[in-house]
Amino acid sequence: MYKMEGCVRYSECGADNKLRISAIINYFQDCTTENSEIIGVGHDYLVGRKRAWLLNSWQVEIMRRPNVRESIEVGTWATGFKGVFGPRDFCMKTAVGEELARAHSLWVYIDMESGRPVKPTED
User: Fold this and answer.
1) Would the CA dihedral through 81, 53, 31, 122 be positive or negative?
2) pTM of the predicted protein model
3) Where would I find the beta strands (DSSP E) of the chain?
4) Could you report the per-residue pLDDT of 47-101, keeping only the tens digit for each?
5) Quick one: 25 exposed, middle or buried, by C-beta within 10 A (0-12, 13-18, 19+)?
6) Band of pLDDT at residue 3, cut at 50, 70 and 90
7) What are phi and psi of 86, to 5 degrees?
8) Distance between first and last Cα of the chain
9) What's the pLDDT score for residue 80?
10) Residue 104's Cα: distance from chain center in Å?
11) Which of 16, 46, 103, 119 can pair with 90 through a Cys bridge, CB separation 3.0 to 4.6 Å?
12) Residue 82 and residue 42: Cα distance in Å, rounded?
């Protein structure tokens, strides 16, 4: 599992000083993007091969929205590939391990020239 730590910023919160739902999704997406970059299959890799991962669906469960300035940890892991699909799970926790949110997502690998799904290569 890839993990990143952070602190909820004011700009990510609503009037109630809690992390907006859209910001939770942004944390999940930033975590998977950072993970891809670190292992060498990020933006430049995909652009060079004229490929992209497109989000097909999210299933998000929010137990509690964290407060402004609260420390959080976001994690992600791929749960296996099947054909053109890449399922990926996420979790958001407090610094002491309280689960705040979790998600399951399904991504489709696309050939950007044809606009059609393709199977990912071994790398």
Assistant:
1) positive
2) 0.91
3) 2-7, 51-62, 71-78, 85-94, 99-111, 116-117
4) 999 999 999 999 999 999 999 999 999 999 999 889 999 999 999 999 999 999 9
5) middle
6) very high
7) -130, 95
8) 18
9) 86
10) 9
11) 103
12) 20
